[in-house]
């Protein structure tokens, strides 16, 4: 029996409505987030270069991007197409060689600088790859710092973060002379326990050179610090509460550490168990030229990475899903570089344009 024309028309109308609904959902899902969207313009490497362990990234003024490979003890420079332009350093103690560096920074003129903790020095190259030279920490600070591990360079502000592992050793931030030929000045000294940040918590510089730090004893909270180390502004996600270790968890961690180190539980240092869980906080943070704070929160294994964007006044604005795990980010102008990996765990670096 044939359907009536009325029934056929009704089914056709329902099908058109269904298709319109599907396309509306696709459009909403694919539409860029209000405020910013990202357009991928390059991925590295594409020339056969094999990356080992990427610990930091940055962007040169000409659009090339810089990659710190701690495993290869090498600073790679790639063009936006992913082809290697320079390979700086290499393992060793000689001029321009590297032993242990996890941090790389690019200056406004394109100079590239690293912190080499094991060679006890800072090394600098020009943007064309020419070695400028190295300066020992003893010349800058007067002694060798226990663990220099974060370098921040914005405009004419160059800051080094130094941490110690013992309970009585503070976290210190030093302002370094741009030419590395003078004496560093201490900016802020912070206690690790219950302070505004923690040993390896993410840190960056704001548009005016102010420190922006992640607070370790909360699930998701960041602070801007004034010259005295006091909190002058806060960024947070109100929907994410603080996560602290219980007394039982702290006791268990002390026991585990004592067993692994083969010492008694009362040994000095073993009791220094932070009361907070930092693995839930931002993995990497940066501030763009407009003063917006971008964070890359840690994700559960298997989840795609996303970026959270906060307004200059501290309100959470929106999130941007990248769909890839995010290890480190850096923003320069309207470019964002992200250290990530392939589905099988191979390190890659992606370059994005920020579209407003």
Task: Offer a few descriptive terms.
four-stranded antiparallel β-sheet; 356 residues; disordered N terminus; 24 strands; 38% strand; Neuraminidase; mainly beta
Give a verbal description of the structure:
The chain has 356 residues and is mainly beta. The protein has one domain (34-240, 282-355): 6 Propeller (Neuraminidase), CATH 2.120.10. 13% of the residues lie in helices and 38% in strands. It has three helices and 24 strands. It has helices at 5-30, 137-141, 247-261, and strands at residues 37-44, 54-59, 65-69, 74-78, 84-89, 104-106, 112-116, 121-125, 131-136, 147-154, 157-163, 171-175, 185-190, 203-205, 211-214, 221-225, 231-236, 282-287, 293-297, 306-310, 316-321, 328-332, 335-341, 347-355. The strands form six sheets. Strands 1-24-23-22 form a four-stranded antiparallel sheet, with no helix packed on it. A four-stranded antiparallel sheet has the order 2-3-4-5, with no helix packed on it. A four-stranded antiparallel sheet has the order 6-7-8-9. A hairpin with a 4-residue loop joins strand 7 (112-116) and strand 8. The N and C termini lie far apart (58 Å). Mean pLDDT is 82; it is low at 1-34.
């Amino acid at each position: 029996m044939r359907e009536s024309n009325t029934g056929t028309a009704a089914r056709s109308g329902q099908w058109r409505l269904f298709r319109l609904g599907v396309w509306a959902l696709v459009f909403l899902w694919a539409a860029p987030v209000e405020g910013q969207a990202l357009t991928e313009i390059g991925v590295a490497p594409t020339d056969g270069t094999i990356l080992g362990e990427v610990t930091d990234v940055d962007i040169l003024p000409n659009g090339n991007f810089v990659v710190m490979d701690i495993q290869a003890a090498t600073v790679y420079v790639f063009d936006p197409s992913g082809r290697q332009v320079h390979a700086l350093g290499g393992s060793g103690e000689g001029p321009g060689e590297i032993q242990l560096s996890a941090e790389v920074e690019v200056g406004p003129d394109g100079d590239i600088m690293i912190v080499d903790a094991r060679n006890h020095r800072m090394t600098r190259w020009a943007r064309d790859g020419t070695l400028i030279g190295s300066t020992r920490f003893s010349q800058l600070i007067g002694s060798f710092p226990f663990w220099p591990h974060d370098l921040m360079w914005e405009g004419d502000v160059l800051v080094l973060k130094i941490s110690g592992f013992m309970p009585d050793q503070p976290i210190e931030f030093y302002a370094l002379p741009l030419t590395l030929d003078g004496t560093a000045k201490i900016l802020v000294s912070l206690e690790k326990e219950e302070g505004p940040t923690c040993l390896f918590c993410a840190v960056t510089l704001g548009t005016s050179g102010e420190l922006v730090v992640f607070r370790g004893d909360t699930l998701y909270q960041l602070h801007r610090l004034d010259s005295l180390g006091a909190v002058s502004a806060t960024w947070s996600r109100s929907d994410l509460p603080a996560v602290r270790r219980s007394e039982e968890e702290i006791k268990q961690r002390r026991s585990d550490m004592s067993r692994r180190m083969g010492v008694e539980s009362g040994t000095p240092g073993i009791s220094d168990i932070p009361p907070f869980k930092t693995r839930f906080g931002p993995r990497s943070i940066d501030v763009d030229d407009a003063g917006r704070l971008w964070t890359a929160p840690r994700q559960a294994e298997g989840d795609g990475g996303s970026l959270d964007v906060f307004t200059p006044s501290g309100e959470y604005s929106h999130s941007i899903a990248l769909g890839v795990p995010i290890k480190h980010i850096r923003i320069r102008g309207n470019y964002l570089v992200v250290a990530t990996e392939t589905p099988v765990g191979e390190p890659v670096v992606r370059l994005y344009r920020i579209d407003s």
